[in-house]
User: Fold Arylesterase from Sphingomonas mollis.
Amino acid sequence: MNGSIALAGRIGRYAAGVVLLQALAVAGCDRSPAPAPAPTAAPTPASIARPAGPERLVLAFGDSLYAGYGLDRGQSLPDAIEAKLRGAGVNATIVNAGVSGDTSAAGRQRLAFALDNLKRKPDLVLLGLGGNDVLRQISPAETRANMTAMLAELDRRGIPVLLTGMKAPPNLGPDYVAQFDAIWPDLAARYRNTLYPFILDGVIGDPALMQADRVHPNVRGVARIADRVTPLVQERLKAAPSIAG
Assistant:
């Protein structure tokens, strides 16, 4: 979602963005409020698996939902997923390349640079863009073209992808919603990617899981998302051997 654009001098656009993102709770989340996460007892040393095996390198490439807007260092979604993977014994390192305010066009421009500056080819890319496109009401055709270009580049490089999708609020009209929401399942099928359909599913609309701006998840919200996304990451990493090289 748009963090820096929303709060860095564009107050009017921010207000509109909040309204749109609140509507996403109707468009893509559970109709009933999500229950607050149950307290988790501190794990004992015996319950934590020690990371083993070859290092798995994952690139988290997205916007403020990956960057950890409004959170302390180490509290972002990529951090939470990495911690859960390592706690499960997966020797994974996630490089956080989330940039607050990025549209799909901005991501398209910097993807190759981000990949080329990793220490090696990643075993998996988490790709999460599109929220700022819908806030700006960018044409779904443009968003689709940008997402297609990024997935084509990753496919060309032989890098598996886990897409974390986005949904448009219903107040943008049925035509826009239908065109926008179809982008992620269509491209996931086309490029044989794993898809988590809506990154804020079960979180947006619940004040206990969102920051005061009602746009970005708080630490508890991030934990909720990580609980749902991490098994998909783990499954995808297990599906193929390391592609280091």
User: Anything to note?
Assistant: The first helix runs from residue 4 to 7. Residues 2-47 have pLDDT under 50 and may be disordered.
